[in-house]
Amino acid sequence: FYNWINNQTLFKRSYPKRIINSFYFDDDNYSSANDNIIGIPNRKKYRLRWYNNDVSKLNFEVKIRKNHLNKKKIFNISENIIELIEDKNLLFKKINRLLIYENIILRNYITPKLRVTYNREYYVNNDGIRLTIDDELYFNDSKLIFKPYNYFNNYKIIELKFEATKKDIVSRLIKKLNFSPVRQSKYVLGLSKLGFISYI
User: Fold this and answer.
1) Residue 84: what pLDDT?
2) What is the DSSP letter of 127?
3) Is the dihedral of CA 109, 110, 111, 114 positive or negative?
4) Which residues are CB-contacts of 86 (< 8 A; sequence separation ≥ 6)?
């Protein structure tokens, strides 16, 4: 794959490699995870995210999928993450107020369910197509806050991110690869590995 990037494409590194940390939120029925497994075309995923060890810059993200297209809404939360995670009620109230203000209606009460940490590399080409490579995935029950991780997975997850109008360009671009695209969710993978849901 790296040979393909370096010798058969015009992808260049667009950002230094960094660590991504996320807390994924869901209700007690894991509705968001189950929507993903079933393949419901219109669904949402909720997560709190920060980069490297900088917990002073938190973003709450709503990842929205409509049919085969994804978009993301990002909201800054200027709070100390340890205080927020330790006080689930305070965390939910703050996030709920934020979402209501943005006219995003939650189906049910959501709380942190899973912590995920991994390394990410960033690339972009002349057509504005972005490529990321994630590896060294660590999963942990969010209730354990910053305790040692429960599970480690050394998969490499490669994503191509582009506007719908560039689908044909991407198809031609990846034609020389010997990989087949698959649907992948780090949230669902982590819940499955930790035994919270059943997923093959």
Assistant:
1) 63
2) T
3) positive
4) 145
